[in-house]
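Researcher: Re-running this chain for the archive, since the previous output was lost when a drive failed. Same request as before.
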Amino acid sequence: MTDLNKKNDGGPAFPVHGGAHEDDDPRNHTLGGGMSLRDFFAGQALVSMETWVPSRDDGTYPSDRSEVLALKAAWAYDMADAMLAARSK
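Model: Regenerated structure tokens:
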């Protein structure tokens, strides 16, 4: 059954062949492992906002550090979703 609410994660960001031995052809093994491409894109987006202070939807700025971090994390995943969407076009 397919989960219709699951976001496209882009698959593995750095896939590796698993379980290959010297006499095995690694192309016959499933790619997997590592973080998802969505997580990788979100991490790259975080780098671009080191000094950025996010505002709330109403234009005010949070003073609570945990709220700032939550807003930055949400923005990073929004950016990652936009990158995955652009990549699929």
